[in-house]
Q: What sequence folds into this?
DNA sequence: TATTGTTATACTCTATAACTATA
DNA sequence: TATAGTTATAGAGTATAACAATA
């Protein structure tokens, strides 16, 4: 019973490599983000709200591929934690504009700095040029896909 | 209500880009693999069995980060589909050696060819050099992590 | 005592149907 | 009629506890 399995074939597959790399990056992210009690999806939602004050729930859903019923739960939790506030939308009576509270702003400022550090810790063995290249190629994958 | 949200910050994060790229690749993979009725995890398990005949359930779990109780369900399904067979392990009475049936071999031969085509369709806008670089950098991410 | 494989079950995440209020 | 937000719920995916058989 040889324990180091032959994974040579799987390693030729882009999907296998991309998934394992993404899992590595996300695992590191979760470790570091634990003190903030933010999962990756929480971070993404709150960061989008931070950089798009007044954004609606539906816009967040479209951008992050989250279904509206699930977003409701996230936003409810953020509101209980007093990280976000809701204001009536200026022109659309159905919608609600979301923004960070002062508390949310303080948290996300620290969390975004933490996220950057997390990234750096993962790619520290890549040269600066390799890091730029990796980001560029990853973007090329998902941006050219929707064409 | 501006619909194209400002995602500039998120796009600076490696995790965000890696996750989106991985989702793109996996979505394409699932589309193409649908005729074989194989999810990514099914493909990974069957491919490992194919290239490691006699492998045990526990070894597959270790390699793919799948918990034993969940693997039981997968293997049960494969057995019902007559894709794999179980033989008593030659030296360990507790364990079972797994291998593909002729039917499984036929299926996986086609599925692996399909997987390669799926990859190619995703990276077709990358030059050959870029493709090699991307794979190399992705491996560097998850292989250097465990050091 | 530790490990393989297994059952049963709990928990989390994601998806669907249907409703209300407004456009 | 279509859309934003919501509720309730179903389903898929993942995790924990405990067991029998073997090492």
A:
């Amino acid at each position: 019973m040889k324990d180091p399995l032959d994974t040579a074939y799987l390693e030729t597959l882009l999907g296998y490599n991309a998934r394992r790399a993404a899992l590595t990056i996300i695992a590191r992210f979760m470790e570091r983000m634990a003190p903030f009690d933010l999962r990756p999806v929480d971070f993404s939602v709150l960061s989008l709200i931070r950089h798009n004050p007044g954004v609606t729930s539906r816009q967040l859903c479209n951008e992050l591929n989250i279904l509206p019923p699930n977003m409701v739960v996230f936003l409810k939790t953020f509101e209980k934690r007093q990280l976000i506030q809701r204001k009536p939308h200026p022109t659309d009576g159905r919608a609600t504009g979301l923004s960070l509270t002062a508390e949310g702003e303080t948290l996300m400022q620290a969390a975004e700095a933490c996220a950057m550090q997390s990234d750096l810790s993962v790619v520290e063995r890549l040269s600066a040029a390799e890091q730029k290249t990796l980001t560029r190629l990853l973007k090329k994958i998902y941006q050219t896909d929707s064409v």
